[in-house]
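Appendix B, example 12.
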Amino acid sequence: MKTAFPLLIALLACTSAFSQDRPTVAAQPNSVFIGADGKFEANPDTALIQFNISAQEATSREAYDHASKSTEQVRQILRSNGIDPKTAEFGSLSLQPVYDYKTPKRKLVGYRVNASVSLKLKDFLKVAPIVQQLADADITDTQSLNYTLEDMDAAKAKAVDDAYRRAHESAAALARSAGRTLGELSYASVDTFDNVRPMPMVGAMMKMNVAGGAPAPTEEFTPQTVSVTAHVNALFNLK
């Protein structure tokens, strides 16, 4: 003869990949508490080109005029590739004096203008021509290229779907093993994490490769996928 006792099953799944604190749940009789991880990998949908416009001259006015001409060159490069210059974002503009510190008394030798620009592209075929043309024009001494995912919310939702599916499957298997039936979801918590890894490319190296006739550093390579992970804690009732 079997005696019926309230059944309390608690299964906590913890992995070292997630260091954030999980919520504390007071497990109820006839319930099962499951933790599960989910993952979704997506191809990047955006190329982010970032560069600076730099100019140094003897006077502040000459440095400003030089930077203005360089900025117009950037506009022409964008237009020649079918891109509206308005889509590029102007982040900062600074004008600073340049001193010579070789002598005990510093000497003013000129002025330097620095401006930062960022450009987002959905058409990856335009990336290489723009990067090469910027390097050839000798407009900037700092240039980087990152591939990223802008539609991050959709990717996170799919990672959560995967995590919940795993949690539900584990809970159902445990309930069957105990001779019970899995009931409705009583509680859930979700954490999501994205791992967007930038891939830098220096403009000077790009220019050197182009000049030498070698292929560009990113030629024939596929942009790295963006990995999004989620952790779901779920409390199910048992029938």
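The chain has two domains: 8-43+151-196+228-238, 46-148. The beta strands are 8-10, 31-42, 46-57, 89-100, 107-121, 143-148, 182-195, 226-238.
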